[in-house]
Amino acid sequence: MASVLRTSAHIRAAVRTKRSFSTYHALRASTAASASSKAPTERAYFTNEPSGPSIKTAIPGPKSQQKIAELNQVFDTRALNMLVDYSSSVGNYYAQIASIPVGYNNPNLLEATKSPEMASALINRPALGNFPGQDWAHILESGLLRVAPKGMNQVFTSTTGSDANETAYKAAFMYHAQQKRGGPEVEFTKDEISSTMSNQSPGSPNYSIMSFESAFHGRLFGSLSTTRSKPIHKLDIPAFDWPKAPFPSLKYPLEDFASENAQEEQRCLQEAERIIKEFHNPVTAVVVEPVQSEGGDNHASPAFFQGLREITKRHNVLLIVDEVQTGLGATGKFWAHDHWNLQTPPDIVTFSKKAQAAGYYYGNPALRPNKPYRQFNTWMGDPARALIFRAILQEIERLNLVENTAATGDYLFSGLERLAKQYPGQFQNLRGKGQGTFIAWDSPQRDAILKKGKQVGINIGGCGETAVRLRPMLIFQQHHADILLENLEKIVKS
């Protein structure tokens, strides 16, 4: 994340735009040349947003400490970063973990909450598998499916990013089993039906999902077996016997190590293919993040992902792209995997975070299970969240926020390059060039930098062992980047 902390009160309401949201493919075309563009002419998206941070006490201050103590009596606060007065937060002041796209108290989102559609979705929340509302198809088609990744025309909605990944894994397992069985029309055998009730094969086969070293795909039971970023996530939790492949460890700046990095990516691809061919529990799908966010903000080139797609196609293994953090414009394209220029699209793309909703997209109709209740739970997502998603998309289009993120990211990266030249010991392995505001670097004093940042009014996060990562909102602009750069320089000089 990257933001400046809240310093002011409510924003005034604005007239809601009636301009319709363009299709995903139009968005892709409108941002195709954005990587080389200059930062847009500054026009503040929130007219009542503070001009800069103003810190009156240490963080947390005395009032927060009192509230935290009260909360700790009934809720575990050990991972708490700070308490926030959301009713008084404005625009970029302040951001969270890649999960707030168009600013706090956005007037157009507030307006969307007042619609009869939203009222009905909230007070009559449907169990979507059994009792969807008569307008559910319209809600999906006018929102989530308007920006479906290329080659995908169906969506399964869920509740969280972890849930999105777990249901994607289930879809992959069922698809693989159907293919092996001879097609979706072939019935289960008596042996399959009886053995699965004892968690035994063949009804409960020992299939696997391959992930990568340092990957993060969630903390639920199945997704946790593909998470490889921190031991604290996994300790004491039984895990599936699933493989992990090496993820490229690139050297920076990229232009100085082109040959070495290409060799490293080729090494990782060769090992990934070996695992797919030889692992004792058959690999049905490979799951990968466009940028390994929690595991240290690790990047790879489009050539690596193109090679991975070719390998999965050759071995009839599904490719699941986890866009929970990277989706919705954060990398300067609506979906981060658009940067890869794949010849054939991924099989499944999962999403959450900035979408304020969750689920997975797919195009192959065979990924829909052959019988009802196989991919099912009470809620199967939430129409209220899908309506917020639609309002977010309207804001993205109205304000050209994907283009803004690409251009602002270029501006911010240039400023960080300047700081890296001045303070090379504090800004190491600067990465994310041409990836919007999805930028990170390594610092031997990472934790101190994060702590000092809050004391001067900037909220940034860390990941991996030493990485400082930026996760601003899509409304993050050049003048916000200037605030961030100015304060970062103060911190490293102190």
Automatic annotation (TrEMBL):
One of its GO terms (cellular component) is cytosol. It holds the Pfam family Aminotran_3. GO terms for molecular function: 4-aminobutyrate:2-oxoglutarate transaminase activity; pyridoxal phosphate binding. It comes from the Eukaryota. One of its GO terms (biological process) is gamma-aminobutyric acid catabolic process. It is an enzyme of class 2 (transferase). Its EC number is 2.6.1.19. InterPro entries: 4NH2But_aminotransferase_euk, Aminotrans_3, Aminotrans_3_PPA_site, PyrdxlP-dep_Trfase, PyrdxlP-dep_Trfase_major, PyrdxlP-dep_Trfase_small. Keywords: Aminotransferase, Pyridoxal phosphate, Transferase. Residues 32-53 are annotated as: Disordered. It catalyses: 4-aminobutanoate + 2-oxoglutarate = succinate semialdehyde + L-glutamate. Its cofactor is pyridoxal 5'-phosphate. Belongs to the class-III pyridoxal-phosphate-dependent aminotransferase family. This is 4-aminobutyrate aminotransferase. It comes from Uncinocarpus reesii (strain UAMH 1704).
